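Hi there,

I know you've been waiting on this one. I reran it after we fixed the sequence typo, so this is the corrected version. Both the input and the resulting structure follow.
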Amino acid sequence: GGDYLLYSLLDAVVDRYFGVLEKMGEKIELLEAKIIDDPTTQTVRDIHRLKREMIFLRKSVWPLRDVLSVVYRAESRLVSDATRMYFRDIYDHIVQVIDVIETCRDMLSSMLDIYLSAQANRQNEVMKTLTIIATLFMPLTFLVGVYGMNFDFMPELHWKWGYAGVWGVMLLSTLGMLVYFKRKKWF
């Protein structure tokens, strides 16, 4: 009858969702591998695109769940009791589809968090390197600034070993900081 035809059509539609979700799952797995291996801004764009597709898919599935709920629960003479159990089966399948969609959305959100964490870690490493370089050059800049002043009566200017002494102090301060950073395991 017409009720079984409706069941067949709805069953075909719901079964197609599983195929679509399987393809989406494969895309999510590929993106996950990309995020771990080489996170790029294109990967983030792909994540956002997939999230939008999941939202679109959810918006298209949700009303179908409501319709199926009404069809299999309502006492209507248009749907026979024998066919009603088939609608319950479709309803269970659509609930599974919604659960898979929600799981995929959660995975995509987690992947975005992983990407942001990786970027923050990379930025922290860069900042650490720049901080070490700046810290190494601060005492050198101070010494060069002091001895670069145009005063005639600086005692060290007329010492025989004054030039070599300044170089020695600069090298020792740099090496001392490098040893300190190495012991702290900052690099």
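Quick highlight: The first helix runs from residue 2 to 37.

Best,
R. S.
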